[in-house]
Write a structure and sequence with these properties.
By secondary structure, the protein is α+β, with helices and mostly antiparallel strands. It has a single domain, classed as Ribosomal protein L22/L17 (Ribosomal Protein L22, Chain A), CATH 3.90.470. The protein is built from 4 helices and 6 strands; from the N terminus they run E-H-H-E-E-E-H-E-E-H. A hairpin with a 3-residue loop joins strand 3 and strand 4. 28% of the residues are buried.
């Protein structure tokens, strides 16, 4: 595949937990973009839990998922990034219905010390999402 069929969006220094961001990335990776967005909307509404595979210590069991949570703030930022990714694809001339999230990655962002009586660190996260057009079955048979 060439770079023309790939779209990417980056969220820099977002006020999101890195652990939640990693689990959401694993939740939406390799899924069609419309399905990934609808799954995150279900998380916002409390209908579906995000399965926690790596950071699952002391997590309660959720129905049909196992250990999981409802990271609403993180889901909100991911929905915004997916919407931006869809707009980037339309701007590039790609079919937004055939997009699949191929790369979903969360990294540690900058940390700053807070001032005042309640000191502590403000931690941020960098998020990278890439999507590419999926070949339809008709195109595969022709080639």
């Amino acid at each position: 595949m060439t770079d023309i069929h790939i779209v990417k969006v980056q969220g820099r220094a977002l006020p999101v937990s890195k652990k939640f961001a990693v689990e959401i990335c694993n939740f939406i990776r390799y899924r069609p973009m419309n399905k990934a967005r609808s799954m995150l909307v279900d998380v916002l509404e409390g209908k579906r839990a995000v399965p926690f595979r790596r950071y699952k210590k002391d997590q309660s069991h959720k129905k049909e998922v196992g250990p999981g949570r409802y990271p609403m703030k993180s889901s909100y930022f991911f929905i915004r990034l997916l919407d931006s990714l869809k707009k980037n694809a339309e701007q590039k001339g790609l079919n937004s219905d055939d997009l699949v999230v191929s790369v979903a990655m969360a990294n540690k962002g900058p940390t700053r010390m807070r001032q005042g009586r309640h000191r502590g660190q403000m931690k941020n996260t960098h998020i990278l999402l890439c999507a590419q057009e999926q070949e339809t079955k008709k195109e595969k048979k022709k080639t």
